[in-house]
Amino acid sequence: MTRPFIIAVDGPAASGKGTVATRLGRELGLPVLDTGLLYRAVGVLTERAGEDPDDPAAATAVASALSPDQLDDPGLRTRAAGELASRVAVHAGVRAALLAFQRTFASQDGGAVLDGRDIGTVICPEAPAKLYVTATAEVRAERRWKQLKGQGETVAFDDVLADIIKRDARDGGRDTAPMQAAPDAVLLDTTEMSIEQAADAARRIVEAARALWERSR
Ligand code: DC
Questions:
Q1: pTM of this prediction?
Q2: What residues flank ligand 1, with Cβ below 6 Å?
Q3: Could you write out the DSSP letters of every residue in 171-213?
Q4: Are 181 and 10 contacting, i.e. CB atoms less than 8 angstroms apart?
Q5: From ligand 1's centre to the CA of 86, what distance in Å?
């Protein structure tokens, strides 16, 4: 059996990691999992059930019952859903409940691309290709603000920037699986890059990782 070629793409909100992951998946013919959607679904479904997202037991129960068909909801892409996701993502029980699904996705034949916060560190520490995609908070806020506007959400830029800063602190400061670059991840700073430039840079990083991986097989 051949080992799957797993690409781990981590980084903070609106860094460009989602776009980079989607492009890599398309170019290499690999399935892509946006793991943020799992946490978004848990946050939104916990709240819809009338439960408190900050209650570990309530959120863990929702995470344990989550099914893939619940990830298609457009309501998961909103600003409120991102905030709820970050809140439920601090619970160790929630993270444990979502672990098996992510690992199963990663281990499919041929490989997969997963984007998130802890893919290279916790979910797939053995991944042969790891990227940590980042950009300044201001540039990320600008991108997120434009995206939300495009989705019809009216929100002030300063509020989006405040959200991003708060989320970085919560995601990076939690005890369980905090957002951080794996020691062997390649850093990709997209602050000054267009989407095309970021995608090109990511492709080159993955090509180099793939060449090393082929040689080690
Ligand atoms: O990538 P995103 O903005 O959709 O993620 C929403 C939140 O979910 C993020 O602020 C933290 C959490 N998350 C996580 O803790 N681990 C992941 N692998 C993915 C997302």
A1: 0.96
A2: 13, 35-36, 39-40, 82, 85-86, 89, 116-118, 167, 171
A3: HHH-SSS-S---TTPEEEE-TT--HHHHHHHHHHHHHHHHHHH
A4: yes
A5: 6
Closest CA to 81 of 55, 53, 44: 44
d(CA 57, CA 143): 34
Q: Are 181 and 122 in contact (CB under 8 A)?
A: no
pLDDT tens by residue, 62-88:
999 999 999 999 999 999 999 999 999
pLDDT for 156-192, tens place per residue? 999 999 999 999 999 999 999 999 999 999 999 999 9
* Atom 5 of ligand 1, residue of closest alpha carbon: 36
Closest residue by CA, ligand 1 atom 18: 116
Pocket test for ligand 1, best of 78, 84, 86 (most atoms within 8 A of CB): 86
CATH topology for 5-216 is Rossmann fold (3.40.50)
Closest C-alpha residue for ligand 1 atom 10:
86
pLDDT < 50 stretches in the chain: none
Q: Give the span between the Cα atoms of 158 and 166, in whole angstroms.
A: 12
